Amino acid sequence: MNFRRIFLVKCLLLLFPSVKWSNANGIYRAVNESALLDITAAGSLYDVRWLRDSKKLLQIKDKKVKYYVNKDQCRCKIFLNGTLQIEQVMKEDSGNYTVTVYQQDGKLKAEEVMKLVVQEPVPQPILSAECMNKTISVKCEAKQKTKDETFIIELTQDKSKKIQKNATKLELHTRYSGTFRCVVQNQVSKKMAEKVITCSGHLDVYLILSIAGGAIFFVIFVILLIYCIRKKKAGRLEDDDEERMMQARQVDSEMVVRELPQPPCNPTPKQLRVQQRPLPQPQVPQQALPPRPRPRTQQRTPNHPRERP
Ligand SMILES: *[C@@H]1O[C@H](CO)[C@@H](O)[C@H](O)[C@H]1NC(C)=O
Ligand SMILES: *[C@@H]1O[C@H](CO)[C@@H](O)[C@H](O)[C@H]1NC(C)=O
Ligand SMILES: *[C@@H]1O[C@H](CO)[C@@H](O)[C@H](O)[C@H]1NC(C)=O
Ligand SMILES: *[C@@H]1O[C@H](CO)[C@@H](O)[C@H](O)[C@H]1NC(C)=O
Ligand SMILES: *[C@@H]1O[C@H](CO)[C@@H](O)[C@H](O)[C@H]1NC(C)=O
């Protein structure tokens, strides 16, 4: 009986060239979405019948709809153009849908088959890593809700190393730290997880070391620079002071009186300071205010290299 039926169907398939699989790759819908299954055959649609896996669903004949299943259970309806709509699809709605179109005279006009696949949205992938000796073991996992659920997992490292598989778990072993990305997808959804994975005591030690080395070098450089600048300044000050001291002493010993009008010609405070000591004479009028010069000399002491130990 069964064999004969198959033979008959095959004969029909041969006899009627309009019989075909539409949506060859299948129609994919996520749970709760709605699906529209269209008839591609053109022309009048007097009598349209929809079956799922050889089970009669409904029929529209002369614009009158007849259900062979519970309307609420199948969540389905048919439009005048023959399109079958299934609302809030469930995984159980997956299957091969066959539509047959008959002319008013009862002749089969067209037969089309299409595969509907209802999938759950993919789970969020879990990306984890383990450092073992000198390698990193990166694992990406997508937990199945049901055993028949399949996804495509893709694990990439810094857009270079890449593995892809039809599975629920993927592992990648590498010697290099980096950014790892795991993408889990099926026909209806796609989810991603990304992580920067670095193993301590790993290759990036070199990076850390070089950064630390650079920092230390920089600090030393800065210290040396400061030291050199200060020393140079100090040296210059000392030289200047000594020169002026010498000048002052010479002047002191030779002709103090002639030196007296000089301060206005050399108005820089340094010179004044230096000259104040060997030449106590101009200070004479200031002796009426003894506390004033003292704080001044105290303030200047840090700038005065001669007074450093
Ligand atoms: C589908 O919709 C129902 C109610 O509208 C909701 O409870 C359920 O979580 C939804 N399922 C998915 C996978 O979105
Ligand atoms: C049939 O009609 C429905 C509702 O008007 C529409 O959504 C669908 O696209 C139509 N299909 C075709 C093949 O025209
Ligand atoms: C749908 O048709 C395909 C191709 O003929 C077949 O492999 C598959 O088993 C069918 N599915 C169901 C649920 O009958
Ligand atoms: C790490 O390497 C040591 C020797 O180098 C070996 O004995 C040990 O089993 C390795 N551990 C792992 C987790 O591979
Ligand atoms: C993945 O493998 C399963 C069976 O293990 C198969 O049914 C499914 O079609 C495969 N998916 C892809 C995209 O290759």
Automatic annotation (TrEMBL):
Where is the stretch described as Disordered? 238-309
Tell me where the transmembrane regions lie: 205-229
**Coiled-coil ranges per the record?**
none
Protein name as annotated: CD2 molecule
Q: Where is the composition biased (Pro residues)?
A: 279-292
Name one cellular component (GO) term.
membrane
Ranges for domain Immunoglobulin I-set come to 30-111
Primary localisation category: membrane
User: Which InterPro entries does the record match to this protein?
Assistant: CD2, CD2/SLAM_rcpt, Ig-like_dom_sf, Ig-like_fold, Ig_I-set
One family from Pfam that matches here is I-set
Signal peptide positions are 1-24
What's the encoding gene here? CD2
What is the organism field in this record? Answer: Aquila chrysaetos chrysaetos
Q: Which UniProt keywords apply?
A: Glycoprotein, Membrane, Signal, Transmembrane, Transmembrane helix
Compartmental location: Membrane
